[in-house]
Amino acid sequence: MSKKKWQNYEIGQCIGRGLQSQVFRGYDIANKREVAIKKRVNIKGAEKEVDIMRNYGQHPALPKLYDYFTFKHRAYIIMEYIDGEPLGRGRKVKKKNEKDALEITVNVLRALGHLHKHNILHGDTLPKNVMTLKGQQNSIKIIDFGFSFKKGKAGVFKGKKWFGKVTGKPIELREQFLLLDDTTDIYVAAFLCVSLLNGHQPQWDEKDGRHIFNLENSRLQAIMEKAMSKEKAFRYSTTEAFIYALEQS
Ligand SMILES: Nc1ncnc2c1ncn2[C@@H]1O[C@H](COP(=O)(O)OP(=O)(O)O)[C@@H](O)[C@H]1O
Ligand SMILES: [Mg+2]
Q: pTM here?
């Protein structure tokens, strides 16, 4: 079965490399379309990732899942090819003016809103996991569901931490027992916005347990501080509330 599926694709050049994967450009011979092929060694992890992608269905700012199979002890996720660039690589971030940064952030929040309605937390909307589309100003797609969570009762994900070092993450993603909700993604979206505005990622202050940053625009500073409050209860509670605040700024 999987060999048959494997023969359906032509594998092209490597277009990305993450911590846990290699991503190739490819061609789906049967369906005559360009695809991206994410290859992972961790098959359990890939299955989780695919399960999340199946669950969110379709949204213009999320890659379509086309196919999934294993072949020779490797997992292959076949998805929509995105013609664009990530907003950052590693710790490097592309600096944006205020209008562009806010438009991008609102687009990310809209996609996060769709995920939240489908009981998913993305958990990792850092600059490297958000792509801008070639020739389409500020349109984005959120990629990489390798770090996503399915919400449980009362919209909360509860579980043990299984991953190592984190950047751009709030306190609740640094503790051994995870208690995550929509506001976890709101924090990371604000972190992304601050990174775009400043052209670099905010520093984590170990003593205070929060990120430190300075924005030129004091109203935006207040909005981002609220979105990145240490206490979840002080953040915007929904993506819509955060978008509303940004639109009033
Ligand atoms: N659907 C896609 N279309 C085009 N490029 C992609 C696609 N998915 C991933 N990439 C590229 O591959 C890189 C790694 O993918 P990602 O899913 O973030 O892997 P990891 O989970 O290892 O971080 C991305 O930064 C991006 O450059
Ligand atoms: Mg990634």
A: 0.97
